[in-house]
Design a protein that fits this description.
This protein is α/β, with parallel strands linked by helices.
Length: about 325
């Protein structure tokens, strides 16, 4: 099959788990093409040379950084990005495919419907469910709900139940995985994805023996206790770290769970997905940052390293759902 994988443009987590699917499709002899607004280096970090088409399918939530949402700006951005003309333009491109996987932009599902190509939504939440939590986005939620209605979906976990789909297949965890690469002793990988964190330098204390590891798209920090890693696949850095400092997000949760790497995570405020992720993170022994970074790291390092999450068949169920 020739399969279009259309990824939400919100951060990189939607893309990274679809790269895991692309890898699985390639191994089974299929032909995936990744539709994404992310920089090429994010794709090439994991699957060099994978076929891609530059496309911004949605906006997710407009955020100043990984921890700060702007619902009114989101409503304006969705109105500008998810127009009838853009849906039709994407539909024209999707007619060249046998199947479409959408993670999890309603406009792309509507484009597949107009192209008359079978589509499968994949996600641990859906955007109308997120938008309904914000008064400024409830009208947007109603419009996008109509675009995802009638489609099939595969539910990733952890996350809230997908809403408004014709049929939902239960899945589990989907994420990238690579053998561990260590770049420093007592390495803590700092991971805030495509949205970053404005005050990252101030948030990283000088701790004896600890090396903070950053990699693209995080910015470089000119500090003796910071190592900027290049030429190493990101999930290999995750697997090789002694801990990851991050915020609750599906992509980093999946990759740390698959690698067995402990996590210290910041509060994500009112983001509706966060409680589902935090419950799963707490269950594996990850530590929420409530006092100092040093105390949180000490807490996870006094516990046994979490076991690696075994592959649970989600990828096989996803490929089977494509038919």
């Amino acid at each position: 099959m020739r399969v279009a994988l259309v990824c939400s443009a919100h951060g990189f987590g939607h893309l990274t788990r679809q790269l895991a699917l692309a890898e699985g499709l390639l191994a089974r002899g299929h032909e995936p093409v990744v539709f994404s607004a992310a920089p090429d280096e994010v794709l090439d970090d994991y699957l060099p040379g994978v076929a891609r088409a530059p496309w911004r399918a949605d906006v997710g939530l407009v955020q100043a950084d990984s921890l700060t949402e702007d619902p009114p700006a989101t409503a304006l951005a969705v109105a500008s990005c998810c127009t009838e003309a853009r849906v039709d333009a994407l539909s024209d491109q999707l007619r060249a495919f046998d199947r479409v996987v959408v993670d999890i932009a309603p406009a792309a599902l509507e484009a597949a419907r107009r192209a008359d190509v079978p589509a499968l939504a994949v996600g641990n939440f859906d955007w109308p469910w997120i938008y309904r939590h914000y008064p400024a986005l409830r009208e947007t939620a109603a419009r996008l709900s109509a675009w995802q209605a009638g489609h099939r979906a595969l539910q990733l976990r952890p996350g809230p139940d997908l809403t408004g789909f014709a049929h939902v297949v239960e899945g589990g965890l989907l994420g990238r995985s690579r053998p561990a690469v260590r770049v420093a002793d007592r390495a803590v990988l700092v991971s805030f994805g495509g949205l970053g964190l404005a005050d990252i330098d101030a948030r990283l204390p000088r701790l004896d023996g600890v090396t903070w590891v950053l990699a693209a798209p995080m910015p470089r920090l000119e500090r003796p206790d910071v190592r900027f890693a290049e030429g190493v696949s990101y999930p290999a850095l995750v697997a090789g770290a002694d801990a990851v400092l991050t915020k609750p997000g599906y992509g980093i949760h999946a990759e740390t769970a698959l690698a067995g790497t402990p996590v210290v995570y910041l509060d994500r405020g009112a983001f509706p997905e966060a409680p589902y992720l935090e419950r799963a993170m707490a269950a594996r022994g990850d530590e929420k940052l409530t006092s100092s970074v040093a105390d949180a790291l000490s807490a996870v390092w006094t516990r046994p390293r979490p076991p690696r999450r075994p592959v649970d068949g989600t990828l096989d169920r996803l490929v089977a759902a494509l038919g």
